Amino acid sequence: YGLLIRAGFWFSARSLGDWPLLMCCLTLPIFPLAALMDEKLSQRKLINENVSILIHIIITTSVIVYPVVVILKCESAVLSGFVLMFIASITWLKLVSFAHTNYDIRVWSKSIEKGASHGSSIDEENIKGPTIKSLVYFMLAPTLCYQPSYPRTSFIRKGWVIRQLIKCLVFTGLMGFIIEQYINPIVQNSK
């Protein structure tokens, strides 16, 4: 078919009109805040464990379904939809880790209150409940494993960060090339 790359696949006049996708992306932080509220209520024993689990299931399901519905309603450009689903997927993975870790912390705290953990070394920093500061750091940190506190170095490895950004750009471009050059013609011919 020759070289089929065209600019409209990634960016088009329609891409600039994808305001609903931008608004969806900007409202995604509501879900981690809802998960934090659920954890606070559960920590204070205002809701029981089963209700807390159900709320976490609803929150994590919504963080994936909501962007999908917005993307399908808007018929957006590929790049806009891809970026939104990429961010939503990361948020989903982080919220699942947040829920599991806080559940384990609550179970561990209950066993400590009952005196079941004799002789174990317990770091008080790791059994306290989640705070807004720990949640914000977790949502911005490049990790999918939630911890109440993270070990940190005193400096940022700028070379490593630049290499990772370059890899991300190169492989995103490669993905776009493969989709545009090989997958789209097959899909168009199958119609």
UniProtKB/TrEMBL annotation:
Domain of life: Eukaryota
Annotated membrane topology: Multi-pass membrane protein
InterPro entries attached to this UniProt entry: Oat_ACAT_DAG_ARE (IPR014371)
Keywords: Acyltransferase, Endoplasmic reticulum, Membrane, Transferase, Transmembrane, Transmembrane helix
EC number(s) reported in the record: 2.3.1.20
Compartments where located: Endoplasmic reticulum membrane
GO molecular function (one): diacylglycerol O-acyltransferase activity
Name this polypeptide is given: diacylglycerol O-acyltransferase
Lineage of the organism: Eukaryota, Viridiplantae, Streptophyta, Embryophyta, Tracheophyta
Encoding gene per record: DGAT
